[in-house]
Amino acid sequence: MRVLFSYGLAFLILIGIGGWLATGTLVVGGQGPGNGEKPIISVIEGQENGPLHTTLAEAGVLAEHPHPTTDPHLTIAQRNELESGASAPLPTVQTVTYVAQPMKIDVPLRGRTQAKATVGVVAETAGIVDVVHVTKGQSVDVGDLLCTLDQGTRAAAVAQARAGLEQADAGLQQAQANFDTNAELRAKGLAAPNTARDLEVALSGAKAAVSSAQAGLDNAEAELDRTEIKAKVAGVVQDPLAIAGSMLGQGQPCATIVQLNPMVFLGQVPESRIDLAKLGLDAVITTVPGAKVDGKVTFISAVADNATRSFPVEIEFANEDLSIRDGVTAEAIVTLGTAPGHLLPQSVLTLDDKGTLGVRTVEDGVVAFHEITIVSDTRAGVWVTGLPLSANVITVGQENVTAGQAVDATAAEAPTASEESV
What we know:
Largest sheet: 6 strands, antiparallel, barrel
Low-confidence stretches: 417-422
Mean pLDDT: 80
Shape: elongated
Helix content: 25-40%
Number of helices: 7
Oligomer: single chain
Strand order of the largest sheet: 4-11-14-13-12-15
Number of strands: 22
């Protein structure tokens, strides 16, 4: 039973394969293009378009071989001439006219912020710290009291110097009175001339004594004032900061003030663009936390960094609310000026056979290729240089044509910025 089933299944498979082959085409070679091709079912029936052929064709199971639209007797050269020769229709493209516009030349710089200055406010005299009036992180202005030293005997020295000045003033007044009295007597002929010389010398000595006493008082008061250490710049207090009760020697810091207004941005300009860098150029600084401020280039180094071959630059900017800190990573966009450029959609950029980036245009009905340089990339498109002032840029079909090829160009409307950003 199994044998009969196996033979029967094999017979059915054989009939199916035969039927499938009968729907194919018999190709007899050596008879030229388009000849020698005949449906197998016609060979079996012995005639063209027999009843079985018609039935299978209507059922859609026969292989269809449409006759070629091109004359099969033509040579390859004749076919190419027919398809792409002078008599062939020109390929169609769409173009948009782009006119040069003033283009901002911006150079991005990576760097960090830095305080304008870090000032150590030092003691001008030695003494024990009596009071520290500030804390770390506190903002101070010019003239704010930072530390007070123990006055010691300085107040007594001021009092002693003041008393000495009063005594010298009294001596000067007495010497002046003696000199004036002697002058009256000499006018009446009642005093000897040599007495006048002695009184004049005494008056000069009294004046010198007053000057010396005044200098002593000034020094004593200045020494007393040095016990109060005040801020010379505005900023934020940082370490090192003195501790009450500690001994400060002359020149040792009471506090350190970081000057955060104005601040500077430190960056590097590559040597390829250092000729474009100029003092006073406008810049926009954006910090990693998101702060954005305007600044100006205030310093360009004359010496390149040996490791990077780039030139350090500084951009100064205002930081009135002290919100931007020292050492924050930031980016600066420096505006070098303007130049003629074209704002194009990215879709029109293409490569030539050598891999050069450029744009294909139509000039007098012929395709031209222009190498371009991308200056900046924006949401509205890319700013490029290298095109004529007015260029008919191919926007549709640029990949199907080559430079020097004649085309049928149709003008189209330029895409809007919203369409480009989609």
